[in-house]
């Protein structure tokens, strides 16, 4: 397809100031699309009063290892509380054929709506869901009411919706009463921007040379199942515990229970808790050192952490929840267990530790960014998508 006949696409999402998996995803998607089309990235400079963000002390202070390509026109202009910034963003998308909104929280929906109204035209809108609802957001009544009202308004303006699994398509269709034929499943792309380092050197750097390393990585939140993982780890046989270490690396946002469990655990000397934001510089050290990635979630739409693990070719132990079954089902290094199955988690950990797989598993082809970009290009033509 010739570039001069492809649509101009604007992607609206978070900047690296609020660095997260969605930030990385926005950058990678824009870069992939820019190889096939003209792309504008319209980014949030301030998404909400930063003191309401649990990691607010690092806002704007963390460096991303991934940058926008020179082919992407980047405008970091949107402020949660500034109509002037919305008008500036609207100017950026006014000449776009397609606008893609990255949706993971309802707290920014008023900015989405302002962009559409101020752009002065009914731009074809695609909403890409990374989350159905945020449990913290829905626990606060004013936010829940705001999310329902504003979300309904903005969703009526979209002609197409994107999710990352068939599970999420059914969930989004049911929860928001969207016709399922309007929802397209496009896999979450690989987070393969981190370097692969020497395993033994990384273990040495962590002071864990000669140990078999289990890794939990990411924010500690109640639905991540860290407390269940700690309890399962405590019940491993003594012979296995002897040379096995559990690393839990990530900020504790709402999960003080797990932190307390680790501190008071009878095997606390075998558990390394890194209770802080893990920078892009340190992330490859943990994944390169790890022998097994564990995702004991009790709920999940997708997991960027899983897609880092896939990029490293690690064996992964995951629960059968949400979109994880689909996204990890095509990855040969995955073993699934039922969520909440404490005995099953212990057995699976022991089996995988005893097996000590050294195989580097290949990522599924459908997670490659060039394939994802092609699918987006297809649905950005409304006539072709129907």
Short description:
This protein has 386 residues and is of the alpha/beta class. Helices cover 37% and strands 18% of the residues. The chain is built from 16 helices and 13 strands.
- Strand arrangement, major sheet: 3-2-1-4-5-6-7
* CA-CA gap between termini: 19 Å
Indicate the CATH architecture of the largest domain. 3-Layer(aba) Sandwich
SS content category: alpha/beta
Summarize model confidence as the mean pLDDT: 87
Q: What is the total number of structural domains?
A: 2
CATH fold title of the largest domain: Rossmann fold
Biggest sheet record: 7 strands, parallel
CATH superfamily of the largest domain: Glycogen Phosphorylase B
Number of strands: 13
- Poorly predicted runs are none
How many helical elements?
Answer: 16
Describe it.
With 386 residues, this protein is α/β, with parallel strands linked by helices. The protein has two domains: 3-189 and 368-385, Glycogen Phosphorylase B (Rossmann fold), CATH 3.40.50; 199-364, Glycogen Phosphorylase B (Rossmann fold, 3-Layer(aba) Sandwich). Helix content is 37%, strand content 18%. The protein is built from 16 helices and 13 strands. The protein has helices spanning 21-34, 83-93, 109-118, 135-138, 141-155, 166-176, 199-205, 226-234, 238-241, 256-264, 283-289, 304-311, 324-329, 342-355, 369-379, 382-385; strands spanning 8-14, 38-46, 72-79, 98-103, 124-129, 160-163, 183-185, 212-217, 244-249, 271-274, 292-295, 316-319, 334-337. Strands 3-2-1-4-5-6-7 form a seven-stranded parallel sheet, sandwiched between helices. Strands 10-9-8-11-12-13 form a six-stranded parallel sheet, with helices on both faces. The chain is globular and about 70 Å long. The two termini are 19 Å apart. The relative contact order is 0.12. The mean pLDDT is 87.
């Amino acid at each position: 397809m010739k570039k001069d006949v492809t649509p101009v696409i604007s992607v609206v999402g978070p900047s690296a100031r609020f660095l997260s998996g969605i930030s990385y995803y926005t950058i990678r998607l824009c870069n992939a699309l820019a190889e096939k089309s003209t792309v504008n990235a319209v980014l949030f400079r301030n998404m909400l009063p930063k003191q309401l963000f649990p990691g607010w002390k690092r806002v704007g202070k963390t460096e991303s290892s991934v940058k926008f390509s020179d082919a992407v026109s980047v405008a970091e202009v949107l402020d949660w509380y500034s109509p002037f910034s919305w008008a500036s963003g609207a100017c950026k998308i006014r000449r776009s054929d397609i606008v893609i909104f990255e949706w993971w929280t309802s707290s920014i929906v008023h900015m989405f709506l302002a962009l559409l109204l101020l752009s002065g035209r009914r731009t074809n809108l695609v909403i890409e869901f990374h989350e159905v609802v945020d449990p913290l957001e829905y626990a606060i009544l004013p936010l829940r009411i705001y999310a329902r009202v504003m979300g309904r308004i903005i969703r009526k303006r979209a002609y197409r919706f994107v999710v990352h699994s068939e599970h999420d398509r059914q969930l989004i269709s049911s929860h928001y009463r969207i016709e399922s034929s309007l929802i397209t499943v496009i896999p979450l792309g690989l987070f393969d921007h981190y370097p692969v380092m020497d395993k033994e050197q990384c273990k040495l750097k962590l002071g864990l040379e000669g140990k078999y390393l289990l890794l939990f990585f990411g924010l500690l939140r109640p639905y991540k199942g860290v407390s269940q993982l700690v309890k399962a780890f405590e019940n491993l046989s003594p012979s296995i515990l002897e040379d096995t270490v559990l690393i839990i690396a990530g900020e504790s946002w709402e999960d003080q229970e797990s932190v307390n469990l680790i501190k008071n655990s009878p095997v606390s000397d075998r558990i390394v808790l890194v209770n802080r934001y893990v920078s892009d510089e340190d992330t490859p050290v943990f994944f390169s050192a790890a022998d097994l990635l564990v995702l004991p979630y009790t709920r999940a739409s997708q997991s960027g952490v899983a897609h880092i693990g896939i990029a490293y070719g690690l064996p992964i132990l995951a629960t059968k929840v949400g979109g994880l079954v689909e996204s990890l089902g095509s990855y040969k290094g995955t073993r699934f267990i039922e969520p909440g199955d404490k005995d099953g988690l212990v057995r699976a950990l022991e089996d995988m530790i005893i097996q000590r797989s050294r195989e580097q598993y290949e990522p599924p082809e459908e997670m490659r960014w060039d394939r994802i970009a092609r699918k987006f290009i297809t649905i950005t033509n409304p006539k072709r998508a129907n």
